[in-house]
Specification:
The protein is 73% helix and 0% strand. It has 79 residues and is an all-alpha fold. It is globular and about 35 Å long.
């Protein structure tokens, strides 16, 4: 699978996972999805990705997410 197809596959799967989780509001935010994918390809771990999840949900979307849900969502993304 070439890089472009692989990116689109990851984008589609991550969007689907975030939407089905019902934990975040930003599942269709292209900028955030791309940022998470970039961090995953750079092998960044829980600190950065978890930070993006919680900060985006709370600050940018005005939602609320507890640390346990962030950790669960992070583990679902990694798996």
């Amino acid at each position: 699978m070439n890089n472009r197809n692989q990116y689109h596959f990851y984008h589609k799967e991550l969007t689907k996972l975030l939407k089905e989780s019902n934990k975040v509001s930003f599942y269709s935010d292209e900028k955030i999805i791309s940022r998470i994918i970039n961090l995953l390809t750079e092998s960044k771990t829980i600190g950065k990705i978890s930070g993006i999840i919680s900060t985006t949900e709370i600050v940018e979307y005005g939602g609320d997410i507890i640390d346990e849900d962030v950790e669960i969502l992070y583990n679902e993304i990694i798996n």
